[in-house]
Automatic annotation (TrEMBL):
Pfam families: Lgl_C (PF08596), LLGL (PF08366), WD40 (PF00400). Residues 574-601 have a biased composition (Polar residues). It comes from the Eukaryota. Keywords: Cell membrane, Coiled coil, Cytoplasm, Exocytosis, Membrane, Phosphoprotein, Protein transport, Repeat, Transport, WD repeat. The keyword Protein transport applies. Residues 1068-1128 form the V-SNARE coiled-coil homology domain. This is Syntaxin-binding protein 5-like. It comes from Oncorhynchus mykiss. GO terms for cellular component: plasma membrane; SNARE complex. GO terms for molecular function: GTPase activator activity; myosin II binding; syntaxin binding. Belongs to the WD repeat L(2)GL family. Gene3D superfamilies: 1.20.5.110, YVTN repeat-like/Quinoprotein amine dehydrogenase. It is a peripheral membrane protein.
Length: 1133
């Protein structure tokens, strides 16, 4: 029975009442709203591709024929890499760590062994690999897996020391088992430990070498089912490697030694080497070193063999980085790595183990990187990695995603970014070059921008489901480097570990203007230029963005006149030659977080600093972190806000236009009864308020930054009264004081909003008591500033954490030179709407439902000279012009404002300001990210909720079109990095090192199968090495083994039933249903059906041919019999 909910009934009655009131106010335009083109059939949610370095890698494998690489992780993920641009992500359902990977070389299949003692066979011949078979061991723990080349029998070593054999075609266990007590000597009473190595003799497939952890190595004869030789060493074994001739093998041990053994000399090792141990002169054993975790022994036809090992360093090398050691002849090269080594593989020319290996590269898997070393060049240079594996080079703190960018943007970023590339890489091509690219139909440019903890900003080309770094910007270069002196050490208690971390980014793709806000409450505005310049003085604006309710309720000490609250014009100096910060009685304790460079700054082509805005400490209290940011290149304005208020900056004139507390935006119509904060709370640092929507102080870096001194041109600004707004405008070395009265005709809140404010939740009421109303959202637009306006004007819409949307009118001078001479007038214009929860997103539609983007300026070269400068001036004079409503439209609504908060979405008709549509997005959760996005055939609102639901709503009707429970919020990183963008694309940081891209577009889902790359390509297997005449005549070459006969059920019998459980994977049509969808799925099903039909027709042809042959044979025999008996009489029979 459906549960009755009285709240929903009341909400429905309230919504009906509000809609009836709004329709009565606005006449009848709502009945003539535009037709909505988007339907629920246009939306489908699916993952597209995952980029970045595999998080917490645990194992690796390489197919030398297909030239593809597989990496397994501790969370059960599989990442497959081919040529640059060919990547694939798979996930084991159990989520257990991948402990071993084995390719079926050149077969398009992969075997994975997990820590939960399961073994899986993956089919790589389809664009999205799927599991064909699984085998779950019940009694024994898997420790090692080995699959010989061109064999279908898989050896599985266990913790008990036993070895089981699995047929990879049927994934069934063989009855042939090598028990540990038969492998070791009968006289030995101790258990040899888990199996750490299994491999067959390169020259004799019937001989298997087994390494046990305790130090015992056994050469097992598969045919006779007994041990031929046993080799014992008093140190634990970590790995074993064969010489290609099969007469020697090498072991690595826990004391940092390598032992080389002859297979027929089982007493002592042939040679013992301690690569990093100090050799004592008296002939004693060298000092023990750290364990050698892995060794590989590779031979060359013309030179000395390679011995490559990880670990084995001396214990006295404290603090030394992890190393990979390459021993070649008499030379030993120690290659330091940035991170601990997880595994390494040597890439060789041949897949055959019984031939000269000819190694040419080493793939080293580190905890946070993938390195490929060129063995063929002197000095062992590394290859330049073409994969996007450096996303986590510094931790990602924020992301932005832009689809359908200007076509010239990616080439421009690539051209300046190509000059940043490091030198000294190997000159050879990247050796992992398998697979083929997909045939995608998407051609629009896509760009992802990531902000990082060290202050860097990276631009990525994300077009056609690929990812490639374009350009890297280091914002920390703007500031002075901190010196580790005594003063700094004294301040270490309040210094954040990442003071330059990027918090928010605002970017205009058309003008290429960029603004970044850091955790230390600073903003840097950048212009894009293709020319190098040297900036003598970095322009700096210093802003005191502090507002408290008790400031207006009680006058400062020494008198209570309103005139005394106003600073004098001399309190701020616009002169660029100012060498120190202006002083003011109320700011005797002013600090800044970073010191801007005092020396000339050489800026290479790319993004160059235009202006730095710095919030300062006031009266010992640090500035609150910036919670919202917006940029408009057409207006030349930057606006930012935090929990104190907002500031509008004119970056063309380098001035602050507006600096207001949030309460002052309401004027005399403040709907909230605010209480002054207690002095103790006023002294609290900014921790916990860095992101209003996240509510977690531990995830973000919000500690108080250090103080410093400034020596640049500054403009300072303070606001002391809610009734008088003081604006300082710097105009050619003169200071203009503007006194702006409270807005006339500020719209009083209607009775519906008042009743709503009284019914707010307890959490919002607590915010009221704290008198904290943060600025959470901005939107520049050309719309109606006030109710009933007849013409549109440039405006700034402001959203707050209490769900209020306020309008600010902008009076801009004409474009061109006048824009740089005349002041910009900024005037708050009243309240537009109120919603439940913090305002997240605002957008505007015209009366046909078309999305109205903010005005923008096209990009021009800022450092151009001559004819180029004329083009620049022409470009600067152009500004997009919005058409005012005609006389026939004046009686109707000509624009619609779309506002989305944490709880609701509203569509408001302008200029009547009537709410015509309202939708409650969630009651029990809250929205983390909302965007108004453009699809191919319409617009919609896309939302991601904290309960994991992804939803889309139609515009302007706010009808639910999609609601999928996709991803529960398990980490604040997801909330911080989730982004929607146009054309049905979205992304988030699924781990600290990986970006997951998803789509909510049905069209993209249907085409996804063709867009993905192919991992498997038909390649001929190289020929086996020639045995030679004498080896073929007298023996001594490689001998083969009939494993089918030896391990088959006929000779080996059946395996124990309870040992392992076989789990068949999705196959045939069922597997294809899960692998594809839509039209692609239908085509795939039809293709499979045709294949099956063709196969059946082929079988029918074979049967028909057999019947014809049988009939011919029968006819021939009948004819012969007739000839034989033709002349005989009846009595002769």
């Amino acid at each position: 029975m459906k549960k009755f909910n009285i709240r929903k009934v009341l909400d429905g009655l309230k919504e009906q009442a509000s809609s009836s009131v709004s329709s009565g106010q606005s006449g009848a335009p709502e009945n003539n709203l535009m037709h909505e083109t988007l339907q629920s059939e246009n939306f489908q949610l699916c993952k597209t591709v995952r980029h970045g370095f595999p998080y917490q890698p645990s194992s690796m494998a390489h197919d030398p024929v297909q030239k593809i690489l597989a990496i397994g992780t501790q969370s059960g993920a599989l990442r497959l890499f081919g040529r640059p641009g060919v990547e694939c992500y798979c996930q084991h359902e159990s989520g257990a760590a991948v402990i071993s990977l084995q390719f079926l070389i050149n077969e398009g299949a992969l075997v994975s062994a997990l820590a939960d003692d399961s073994v899986h066979l993956w089919n790589l011949r389809q664009r999205r690999p799927a599991i064909l078979h699984s085998l779950k061991f019940n009694r024994e723990r898997i420790t090692f897996v080995h699959l010989p080349f061109q064999s279908k029998w898989l050896y599985i070593g266990t913790e008990k020391g036993n070895i089981h054999i699995v047929n990879v075609e049927s994934f069934t266990l063989s009855g042939y088992v090598i028990m540990w007590n038969k492998a070791i000597e009968l006289s030995s009473k101790a258990h040899p430990g888990p199996v750490v190595h299994i491999s067959d003799n390169p020259m004799d497939e019937g001989k298997l070498i087994i390494g046990y952890e305790a130090g015992i190595v056994v050469l097992w004869d598969l045919k006779s089912k007994k041990a031929d030789y046993r080799y014992t060493y008093d140190e634990a074994i970590h790995s074993v490697a064969w010489h290609h001739e099969g007469k020697q093998f090498i072991c690595s041990h826990s004391d940092g030694t390598l032992t080389i053994w002859n297979i027929k000399g089982q007493g002592k090792p042939f040679q013992t080497i301690t690569p990093h141990g100090k050799q004592p002169k008296d002939g004693k054993k060298p000092e023990p070193c750290k364990p050698i975790l892995k060794v590989e022994y590779k031979t060359t036809r013309l030179g000395d063999p390679f011995m490559i090992l990880s670990g084995g360093l001396s214990y006295d090398t404290v603090g030394r980085r992890p190393c990979l050691t390459v021993m070649h002849g008499k030379s030993t090269a120690v290659l330091e790595m940035d991170y601990p080594i997880v595994d390494f593989l040597t890439l060789c020319e041949t897949p055959y183990s019984n031939d000269f290996q000819e190694p040419y590269a080493v793939v080293v898997l580190l905890e946070k990187d993938l390195v490929v070393i060129d063995l063929a060049q002197n000095g062992y240079p590394i290859f330049e990695n073409p994969y996007p594996l450096t996303i986590h080079e510094s931790p990602v703190t924020c992301c932005e995603y832009f689809a359908d960018c200007p076509v010239d943007l990616i080439p421009a970023l690539y051209s300046v970014g190509s000059r940043q590339k490091r030198q000294g890489y190997s000159k050879k091509e990247w050796p992992i070059s398998g697979g083929n690219w997909g045939l995608g139909t998407q051609s629009y440019p896509e760009i992802i921008i990531t902000g990082h903890a060290d202050g860097t900003v990276k631009f990525w080309d994300a077009s056609a489901i690929m990812l490639q770094v374009l350009y890297k910007l280091k914002t920390a270069k703007v500031f002075e480097k901190s010196r580790n002196n005594k003063e700094d050490k004294q301040n270490t208690e309040i210094v954040d570990e990442d003071p330059f971390a990027i918090q928010i980014m605002a970017w205009c793709p058309e003008s290429r203007m960029l603004c970044v806000a850091g955790v230390s409450a600073n903003l840097i505005i950048y212009r894009f230029s293709k020319q190098e310049i040297t900036t003598e003085v970095v322009q700096l604006l210093e802003v005191r963005l502090q507002y408290e309710v008790n400031d207006m309720e009680s006058p400062p000490e020494g008198g209570g006149g309103g005139d005394r609250d106003l600073p004098t014009p001399g309190a701020a100096s616009p002169s660029p030659q100012t060498t120190g910060p202006p002083t003011h009685p109320s700011t005797s304790n002013t600090h800044v977080t970073h010191t801007v460079r005092s020396t000339p700054l050489k800026q290479s082509s790319g993004y160059q600093v235009e202006l730095v805005v710095q919030l300062v400490w006031v009266s010992g209290e640090p500035p609150q972190q910036i919670t919202s940011l917006a940029l408009n290149s057409s207006y030349g304005l930057i606006v930012f806000g935090n929990s104190n208020g907002l500031a509008v900056v004119d970056y063309l004139q380098k001035t602050v236009l507006l600096n207001l507390g949030t309460v002052e935006l309401y004027g005399s119509n403040d709907p909230y009864q605010r209480q002054a904060r207690s002095p103790r709370k006023a002294r609290q640092p900014a921790g916990g308020l860095c992101d209003i929507n996240e509510g977690s102080a531990s995830e973000d870096r919000c500690k108080s930054p250090t103080s410093g001194k400034l020596s640049f041109s500054m403009l300072e600004l303070c606001v002391f009264s809610p009734c008088v707004r003081v604006l300082y405008l710097s105009v050619l070395s003169s200071t203009v004081l503007l006194s702006v009265c409270p807005p006339r005709g500020a719209n009083p809140l209607d009775h519906r909003d008042n009743s709503f404010s009284r019914s707010r939740s307890s959490s919002v009421t607590s915010i009221d008591k704290e008198a904290r109303e943060a600025i959470t959202s901005f939107h520049f637009c050309e719309t109606f500033a006030r109710k009933g306006d007849s013409a549109i004007t440039p405006c700034l819409y402001v959203g707050t954490s209490l769900g209020t949307v306020l309008a600010v009118a902008l009076n801009l001078p004409p474009a061109g030179e006048q824009r740089l001479l005349q002041p910009v007038i900024v005037l708050p214009s009243g309240t537009l709407a109120r919603l439940k929860g913090s305002i997240l997103r605002m957008a505007f539609l015209d009366n046909t439902g078309t999305f109205l983007p903010p005005a923008f300026e096209t990009w021009y070269e800022p450092n151009a000279a001559g004819a180029d400068s004329e083009e620049r001036d022409k470009a600067r004079k152009r500004r997009p012009v919005s058409v005012s409503p005609s006389t026939s439209q004046e009686l109707q609504e000509s624009q619609y404002a779309v506002v989305c908060s944490e709880k609701q979405a509203k569509v408001i008709a302008l200029p009547s300001q009537n709410c015509i549509f309202k939708h409650s997005i969630t009651e029990t959760s809250f929205v983390l990210r909302a965007d108004v996005v453009q699809m191919n055939i319409g617009n919609c609102v896309a939302c991601f909720c904290a309960n994991g639901h992804i939803m889309t709503l139609s515009l302007p009707g706010l009808r639910p079109l999609l609601d999928v429970n996709y991803l529960p919020l398990t980490d604040m990183r997801i909330a911080r990095t989730f982004c929607f963008t146009n054309l049905g694309q979205a992304m988030y940081l699924t781990s600290p090192t990986e970006i997951q891209r998803i789509t909510y577009s049905q069209e993209t889902c249907e085409n996804l199968q063709e867009m993905l790359g192919e991992l498997f390509t038909p390649v001929e297997t190289p020929e086996a090495p020639n045995r030679g005449f004498f080896k073929g005549l007298f023996g001594g070459g490689a001998t083969s083994l009939d494993r089918e006969e030896l391990f088959g059920e006929t000779q080996a019998g059946k395996a124990s039933r309870g040992l392992a459980q076989h789990i068949p994977g999705p196959q045939g049509l069922e597997g294809m249903k899960g692998a594809a969808s839509g039209v692609v799925a239908d085509l795939a099903r039809a293709r499979i059906a045709l294949d099956e039909r063709g196969q059946k027709l082929g079988e029918l042809d074979e049967r028909t041919a057999a019947m014809l042959a049988s009939a011919d044979s029968f006819g021939k025999h009948a004819h012969d019999m007739m000839l034989k008996c033709k002349d005989k009489k009846w009595y002769q029979f």
